[in-house]
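WARN retry 2 of 3 for item q-0093 after timeout on previous attempt; input resubmitted unchanged.
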Amino acid sequence: MTTIVHVLRHGEVHNPEGILYGRLPGFRLSGRGQRQALTVAEALAGHQIVHVVASPLQRAQETATPIADAHRLDVATDERLIEAGNQFEGKRVAVGDGALRQPRHWPKLVNPFKPSWGEPYVEIAHRMLGAIHRARVEAEGFEALCVSHQLPIWTLRRFLERRVLWHDPRQRQCSLASLTSLVFEGDRLDRIVYSEPAGYTDPKVTGA
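OK item q-0093 returned
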């Protein structure tokens, strides 16, 4: 029995200050982000989606809503889909300015393999995998949609592809409103399909 779990990164966020917003409340989709969510809803209109679940953060819930509406479903919430914890949350972290220029923050950068500045990659992978399998069970034989965030989605993909979890953020294949679709045969992952129904965006976009 084939079941597909689509893992969707939320759309663009209204973030005029360019901070790393992480798990902070109140960060909503921008106008472009709303259009991206509608584009994904149109792309998935002909799919047999029977379960929609999202991270509790506002941007993920707003991205999930038009897709759930198109399939006459409610948006469920799973805390395990939330953005990764990060000690630089609420700060500007672009190269050359912001928190990274301040020596008091440098001890947070001592171990990029864990990483030392936030939630360990292995913990992100395990919680995401739990949420994915819960969605697979809910949609058995059909399709589910899980809305999450760039780092958790990319970490999950690397985990499933048996790659090391630490990585260069500039190399993530996880554009805004992109789909990382997990195709299961029974409870076995058969393949991963990546697509960008709303188009490509630079993975260095601040936030996630």
